[in-house]
From TrEMBL:
Transmembrane spans: 6-29, 38-56
One Pfam family in the UniProt entry: p450
Matches recorded under InterPro entries: Cyt_P450, Cytochrome_P450_Monoox
Keywords in alphabetical order: Heme, Iron, Membrane, Metal-binding, Monooxygenase, Oxidoreductase, Transmembrane, Transmembrane helix
Molecular function via GO: heme binding; iron ion binding; monooxygenase activity; oxidoreductase activity, acting on paired donors, with incorporation or reduction of molecular oxygen
Assigned protein family: Belongs to the cytochrome P450 family.
Organism: Paramecium pentaurelia
Domain of life: Eukaryota
Name this protein carries in UniProt: Cytochrome P450
PANTHER family, per database record: BIFUNCTIONAL ALBAFLAVENONE MONOOXYGENASE_TERPENE SYNTHASE, CYTOCHROME P450 FAMILY 4
């Protein structure tokens, strides 16, 4: 009996060490060293995930717990939390954010999906020379000069889906638009009518990525399993939901590979000479065939597949949630909606958004910037692990620790914006300096440094068109049947519930 008691107590002591002492002691030491520069938010096991979920429950806003703490202590430069049993440092000070963005090679991104062979070889997750090669190759395709040829397609997609969609689900409505734009930009006519699981491809894809993200937040068993076993977690005692996700992922990869192989054969027989007419897949396939001919193969079919999933994930959800949040604020503040409508009528009238009038939509641009400032969908960056012991300002980060850049942390501080907690899109219309004490890393909705968002021009272009054309055609209203609107998280921060808005056709 005494042996069993000792064994049980030893097990409890061991668990207490790994779950509490191992992550907490380094955090407490850091707190003592940094004083007011650090805020401690430690939760055994759930860690940072616990902070987010409790913030949604208590404040109806995934970021409000942290924002309140930062407003209460404006001297804070970091938030000290945990990623299960590992110390997790949220970087909030702009100088600290700057250092970690510029020294990106010292950190390794944690795969947000934890799926084998999914996005690992895409631009988002690539490191070192392979990342430089991909960034250089794709960079020229994301300039405004190249993207402006897609303006007619974007107009057509927005108008078509706005007309056909029942608009009862805001996030699905926006995702249908942005997803189709990404698919047409990548595959062109090749993906016309593409279906997955009996649904339009963009909806099936956005639901798939959203469900993976929600599983990690809502199911502690899956969350812990992925922390421990990474990509192998899907093979270890999988539940029915996990099996279904894996099946859908494999089906997606098979369908996309079929399209890629088909395009390779088409361009092998009939190469496109005019680069201006190429979609992203054509650029990749042309380079793939060129390397094959020269027997210097760097690009493989698997990389093209991962690149599509990466661009879809990065380009669909972010722009959809940004646009949806903009529409929410137009419904919440009818006077702003009237001002935006007036601009649309004056600038584009009954015409499409085109190269000449796009950059004259100053109020819409200001609206988007204000949404980015207060409710950026990418409210934190992807989690990263520290590769080797690393000094950031006065903090010594240990190998294996986790860091997260909280890129909107300074947006809610009065030291950087007048009346920082107030939604005021007109601040961005001022000709003077909007941002106070700016080191270039205060308002960074698309991140900053060498690994900033390559698709930011396309995202802004698309969001402007969505807002302009929808406001012109519909009066946007808050749904009176919805008692509580919240800013939750599906993978990114978004307005919930999905039926929070109504769209009334203008006469």
């Amino acid at each position: 009996m005494e042996f069993y008691l000792i064994a049980i107590l030893s097990l409890i002591a061991l668990m207490a060490y790994f779950l509490i002492l191992k992550p907490l002691v380094p955090l407490l030491i850091l707190k003592l060293q940094l004083g007011d520069k650090a805020i401690l938010m430690f939760y055994p096991i759930s860690g940072l995930l616990g902070v987010f979920t409790k913030s949604i429950k208590n404040n109806h806003d995934v970021m409000e717990t942290m924002n309140k703490a930062l407003r209460k202590n404006p001297k804070a430069k970091v938030i000290l939390s945990n990623y299960f049993t590992t110390p997790c440092i949220l970087i909030t000070g702009s100088e600290y954010i700057k250092d970690t963005f510029l020294d990106h090679n010292d950190f390794e991104k944690i795969n947000p999906f934890m799926l084998p062979s999914f996005i690992q070889r895409g631009l988002l997750m690539m490191e070192g020379e392979d990342w430089k090669r991909q960034r250089k190759f794709l960079g020229s395709a994301f300039t405004f000069e190249k993207l402006k040829s897609r303006l007619p397609m974007m107009n057509k997609v927005v108008q078509s889906i706005a007309e056909k969609d029942d608009k009862k689900n805001l996030n699905d409505f926006m995702a249908r638009i942005t997803g189709e734009v990404v698919i047409k930009s990548f595959f062109g006519e090749l993906a016309e009518g593409l279906q997955l699981e009996g649904k339009d491809a963009q909806i099936a894809l956005i639901q798939l990525t959203g469900e993976i993200g929600l599983m990690q937040i809502e199911n502690i068993y899956i969350f812990l399993k992925q922390l421990l076993f990474k990509e192998r977690a899907w093979d270890i005692f999988p539940g029915q939901k996990e099996k279904d996700i894996v099946r859908r992922v494999e089906n997606l990869k098979m369908k996309v590979k079929e399209l890629i192989v088909k395009r390779i054969e088409q361009l092998r027989e009939n190469p496109i000479q005019d680069e201006g007419k190429m979609v992203f897949l054509d650029l990749y396939v042309t380079e793939y065939l060129k390397q094959q001919k020269q027997k210097e193969q760097q690009i493989e079919i698997e990389e093209i597949l991962h690149q599509f999933i990466t661009l879809f994930f990065a380009g669909t959800d972010t722009t959809a949630t940004t646009s949806g949040t903009c529409l929410y604020y137009l419904a919440k503040y009818p006077e702003i909606q009237s001002e935006i409508l007036e601009e649309v009528q004056q600038v584009i009238g009954n015409n499409d958004v085109n190269e000449e009038n796009l950059n004259k939509l100053n109020k819409i641009n200001a609206l988007i910037q204000e949404v980015f400032r207060l409710k950026n969908p990418a409210f934190v960056t992807l989690f990263r692990t520290v590769k080797q012991d690393k000094q950031v300002q006065e903090i010594k980060l240990k190998k294996g620790w986790v860091i997260v850049q909280m890129q909107n942390a300074n947006s809610i501080q009065d030291s950087h914006f007048d009346n920082a907690t107030e939604f005021n899109y007109k601040r961005w219309l001022n000709k003077g300096n909007v941002i106070k004490n700016d080191n270039g890393f205060i308002h960074i909705p698309f991140a900053a440094g060498p690994r900033n968002c390559i698709g930011q021009h396309m995202a802004l272009m698309e969001a402007k068109i969505i807002i302009a054309l929808i406001v012109r055609k519909y009066k946007i209203l808050l749904n009176p049947a919805v008692e509580q609107i919240r800013f939750g998280v599906k993978f990114l921060q978004c307005v919930e519930p999905d039926n929070c808005l109504l769209f009334e056709k203008r006469i």
